[in-house]
User: Which sequence fits this backbone?
């Protein structure tokens, strides 16, 4: 995802290529850097985080300059400061990876914030109803839990299920880390010691910055050994409330009682 501070970063310098580099030169540089900084190739444990951070930066740069449209826009912004007349406008944010549409079609964001909030609330209520309906076989029952907007828990003979939704007006790495803390607290509270646990957390946002880092934080948490087994499986769905698009973080749970909930989110 392209950063809102893209014009402050020199993506060509990140990749070690000149601004007039060809696409083949850019790909060659990217492959070399990915080979050098991939966390799996870092021997020292203390250097792993630094390598992961470097890879986020490299991937962000490559996602922009390897795409003709994004590169042209970036080059135009890089050539000079934004015009004063455009100072109130925010650059658009695009997912840099495939996304799944949610159950409701994309809605053009309303110019009036009150109308936009009303549209979001209407969508959230419909989503909540779909989750409750889809989770019937998992015996999902609403169990409010702050700071989650709404939350369900269900139990069967061998399964323990939890589905929670939270809305964050602004999403960035710090907010993502705070969400992970809240996710951990919910898991600790609701995890069963002898049943198979499936946790699904939906985190919605209106605006986002440093999207690649945000997804990296959520994916790293979901992919931890403790959160990615058949006995304990954690999924986080990061949802853009404006475009009604979402990205699934973690190993997709495939289990009959919870599959209808994923289907309600159009995640297959």
Assistant:
């Amino acid at each position: 995802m392209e950063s809102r501070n893209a014009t402050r970063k020199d993506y060509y310098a990140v990749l070690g290529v000149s601004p007039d580099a060809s696409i083949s030169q850019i790909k060659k540089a990217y492959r070399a850097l990915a080979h050098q900084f991939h966390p799996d190739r870092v021997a020292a444990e203390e250097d792993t985080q630094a390598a992961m951070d470097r890879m986020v930066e490299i991937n962000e740069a490559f996602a922009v300059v390897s795409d003709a449209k994004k590169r042209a826009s970036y080059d135009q912004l890089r050539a000079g400061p934004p015009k004063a007349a455009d100072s109130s406008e925010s650059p658009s944010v695009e997912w840099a990876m495939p996304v799944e549409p949610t159950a409701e079609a994309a809605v053009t964001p309303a110019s009036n914030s009150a109308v936009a909030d009303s549209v979001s609330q209407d969508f959230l209520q419909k989503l909540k109803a779909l989750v409750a309906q889809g989770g019937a076989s998992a015996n999902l029952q609403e169990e409010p839990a702050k700071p989650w907007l709404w939350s369900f828990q269900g139990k069967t003979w061998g399964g323990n299920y939890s589905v929670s939704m939270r809305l964050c007006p602004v999403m960035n790495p710090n907010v993502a880390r705070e969400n992970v803390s809240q996710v951990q607290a919910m898991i600790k509270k609701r995890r069963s010691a002898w049943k198979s646990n499936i946790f699904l957390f939906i985190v919605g946002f209106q605006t986002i910055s440093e999207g690649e880092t945000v997804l990296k934080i959520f994916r790293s948490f979901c992919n931890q050994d403790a959160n990615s087994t058949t006995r304990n499986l954690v999924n986080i769905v990061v949802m853009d409330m404006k475009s009604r698009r979402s990205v699934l973080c973690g190993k997709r749970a495939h289990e009959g009682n919870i599959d209808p909930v994923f289907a309600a989110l159009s995640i297959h």
Remarks:
- DSSP finds eight helices and seven strands in the chain.
- Confidence is low (pLDDT under 50) at residues 1-7, 82-116.
